[in-house]
Amino acid sequence: MSNKEFSDRLNQFTLKLFSSSASTNEENHVISPLSVSLALQMCMIGSKDSTQSELTDLLCLNDLSSSFDLLQANKSFIDRVNQHLNKSGISINIANRLYVMKSFRLRDDYKQMLTKYFDASIESVDFRKSEKVAKQINDWIERKTNSKIKDMVDADMLNELTRFVLLNAIYFKGNWLTKFDERCTRKLKFTQIDGKLADVDMMILYAQNLKLQSSPCSSPCITCELPYVGKELSMTIILPNVDIQFHEFERSLNMKLLSEIVNSKKKSLRLANLYLPKFKIESTIDVKFFFFLISNLILIYFNLFFLKIKKLNDMLMNLGCRSAFSPSDADFSGIGDRDPNFENVFISKVLQKAFIEVNEEGTEAAAVTMVTAKGCSATSSGPTPIEFKCDRPFLFVLHETATNCIFFIGKYLKA
After folding, report:
1. What percent of the chain shows pLDDT beyond 90?
2. What is the DSSP letter of 145?
3. Residue 257 and residue 253: Cα distance in Å, rounded?
4. What is the rounded distance in angstroms from the CA atom of residue 236 to the CA atom of residue 239?
5. CA–CA distance from 391 to each of 226, 239, 244 (Å)?
6. Are 75 and 101 a contacting pair, CB within 8 Å?
């Protein structure tokens, strides 16, 4: 499978998850479906039968010729991101880690797949010492996200029933190819999602040749692509037309439109003045499941901005992945030998913590997905520039330019 084909699969899941999580959300919102996908893929390779079938359907990986294609594609993708995309002015990293209860026996083939194809490190711990292990996990997360994500794990999440904690972390920091001049940033009005006006710190690029696209796929919006240093990664801003209701546009987002929006070749250089608010978004989706019978649980933590509670478990089940969350139906026997003292292994909790900040210099973003297993004013003398003014709600996508792979997707609705 080529990098482009793999990225297309990841983007299909991105649209599926973002549409499900954001369509009724009135808050600023950011998500890294890529991080969720990689974490769930590490669960999927240890699943069997209907659990595996539902996970492959959920992740848009159901028609691959072989599981080896997927493993090779993951290795190629992670190696390319960690080695090729890191350069002066760009810092990007994908990291995976497994903390396993010292008494829980992982299958050798599962350990080999994690280390070889997901570049995951594995550490044996005693979850009964919950405060010590929680600190170990939080320290790893903080290191891998440049201190942008802290204190994700509470000691009370871990106990003698915990079998393993599986983590995926993505960190990105990039400088704009053309930086905004801080001297041009000023207070301007922004029309929020509720129609009320608010003052924002508006960054401005005057009379720049920018990659723009009007009405992609005849959709009522205009897009602007802002490349980072090296031009291999970009942020594309999607601004619905002023006469279009934001949520109506958001619901119209489909794979064909999203693919065209992130395709650099579809855009053309136009002289423009760009107005873009400075913003920092933090949100949390925290999912808690309670069971009468505690068994070998898998907890997937999912945090997004503004500490807003939302049931991601329900979201994933509504997307067709049900057996993985069922104590009686889940089959993750490919991960580790069944403990005779416990029942089946199933997913019980999803939590991702994410962060993004956009300013004059560039963008910094991070996301962590965790899986835990338990026992149960300038002028131009040339043509008149186009005004690309983000003074109303807009979407943003952080993506690679060669494969169009989306790393983060979100929306800015209010100051």
Report:
1. 57
2. T
3. 6
4. 10
5. 17, 9, 14
6. no
What is the residue-wise DSSP string for 67-93? HHHHHHHHHHHHHIIIIIS-BTTEEEE
Measured CA to CA in angstroms, residue 396 lies from 30, 308, 391, 410, 412 at distances of 9, 20, 14, 5, 8
Query: Beta-carbon neighbour count of residue 165 at 10 Å?
Result: 29
HSE value, Cβ hemisphere, 13 Å, CA-based, for 61: 26
Using an 8 Å Cβ cutoff, are 250 and 261 in contact? no
Token readout for 75 is 């290795």
Q: Is the per-residue pLDDT at 309 higher than 60?
A: no
Q: What is the pLDDT of residue 288?
A: 30
Distance CA 204, CA 184 (A): 6
For the chain, what percent of residues have pLDDT higher than 70?
84
**pLDDT score of 406:** 97
Structure tokens at 370: 């965790």
10 Å CB burial of residue 302 (0-12, 13-18, 19+) is: buried
Q: Taking the CA atoms of the chain, what radius of gyration do you get in angstroms? A: 22
Q: What share of the chain is helix, strand, coil (3-state, %, to 5)?
A: 30, 35, 35
**CA dist., res. 381 & res. 207, Å (int):** 10
Identify whether the C-beta of residue 306 lies closer than 8 Å to the C-beta of residue 43. Answer: no
CA distance readout (Å), 179 to 88, 274, 295:
15, 12, 52
Instruction: Mark residue 362 as left, alpha or beta (left: phi above 0; alpha: psi -120 to 50; beta: remaining).
Output: left
| Cβ atoms of 321 and 53 closer than 8 Å | no
Query: What are φ and ψ of residue 251, in 5° steps?
Result: -70, -20
